[in-house]
Amino acid sequence: DAGVIQSPRHEVTEMGQEVTLRCKPISGHNSLFWYRQTMMRGLELLIYFNNNVPIDDSGMPEDRFSAKMPNASFSTLKIQPSEPRDSAVYFCASYAGVTYGYTFGSGTRLTVV
Amino acid sequence: SQQGEEDPQALSIQEGENATMNCSYKTSINNLQWYRQNSGRGLVHLILIRSNEREKHSGRLRVTLDTSKKSSSLLITASRAADTASYFCATGSNFGNEKLTFGTGTRLTIIP
Lengths: 113, 112
What we know:
The complex is a heterodimer of chains A (113) and B (112).
Chain A: E1 5-7, E2 10-13, E3 19-24, E4 31-38, E5 42-50, E6 53-56, E7 65-71, E8 74-79, E9 88-95, E10 102-104, E11 108-112
Parallel strand pairs in A: 2-11
Antiparallel strand pairs in A: 1-3, 3-8, 4-5, 4-9, 5-6, 7-8, 9-10, 9-11
Chain B: E1 5-7, E2 10-14, E3 19-24, E4 29-37, E5 43-50, E6 55-58, E7 61-66, E8 71-76, E9 85-93, E10 96-102, E11 106-111
Parallel strand pairs in B: 2-11
Antiparallel strand pairs in B: 1-3, 3-8, 4-5, 4-9, 6-7, 7-8, 9-10, 9-11
């Protein structure tokens, strides 16, 4: 298994532009999580899905952020419009059960200028 | 918001020494997990301890959990240069053990 795959690895965009981050979880994992990591705030849970259904989106900072999981093998996190304060590393993680913990992707480093 | 707070924030030791990191949390938990993050990479799951366990071992890792003090420790014995990374504790709540809340992390540097 190739693990959790995120794309792109790096994204530099101008303020106001739409940004879409993508994630392919491990096949068979029922839960998918989006986290954001910054030096100031650490790791923050944005949203998570269970069996493709959003369960908790209380961490989504504002309406500019949206996430979808149209099927078990794909999820997107969209920011529209992007702002400089959205600059962070965004991680996707999938989960098959508590014994094994989360499997994280390599992250997308987003820079909004 | 952060559930766990790791202590110390940074730790530097000589290769071969043992490294101990601590984690304190605030609310009731179902399980506590430790993760490692190498620079520029995603987090990697190291070990899990359930709330009814007090100690667990995996290779050079030893984790303890004291639910009365709401604290955990991670001991890495005989450290190696490759152990240089950030280490995070994460807690799963009693209300469903899927969602994890991560601590602030300890930056460990092993000096060759």
